[in-house]
Amino acid sequence: MRIARRSVSGPSRGDLTPMIDMTFQLIAFFMVLLSFADAEQDQRINLPKSELAKPPDKPFEEPRTLQLTKTGRVLFSGREVPIGPPLRQVLRTEREVLQRVAGKEPSAVTMIVRADANAQMGQVQEVIEICQELGFEKFHLRAQQEQTE
Predict the structure, then answer these.
(1) What is the tens place of the pLDDT at every residue in 45-77?
(2) Domain for residue 111, yes or no?
(3) Residue 82, domain extent
(4) Where residue 89 sits, what CATH number does that domain have?
(5) pLDDT of 129
(6) How far, in Å, CA of 33 to CA of 24, rounded?
(7) 131 near 39, Cβ under 8 Å?
(8) Which of 67, 69, 91, 136 could make an SS bond with 75 (beta carbons 3.0 to 4.6 A apart)?
């Protein structure tokens, strides 16, 4: 009985093309993701500076961003609305969408308030009160970290 010899063709080489393609796709995905995160920050809002300001420890689970301009208008979901009944209506709609579509309560949402440095503090309080009336309970106020030398 004859035993066939295995032929040794040398070390096998894998095709790296799929791995390189996947790497570029991941890079493109994260670039798009970062662009959406920047979309929540309107350049018209100049945050106040504070030595105590620091980034959050972990990302918020259900963030919603309210941006208060120095003229007393609120930017929310691509819309600019005045404080008062129009803002209340927009937030009421947001609450209904959360409850019906996402199946979440407003208390699960963190409202991120980005108020302009020249906005009146009373307007910030009024925005927070409107949110609380509609069941939003968690708030995070944003400020720009002041550089200490």
Answers:
(1) 666 666 666 666 777 777 888 888 888 888 888
(2) yes
(3) 49-145
(4) 3.30.420.270
(5) 93
(6) 14
(7) no
(8) 67
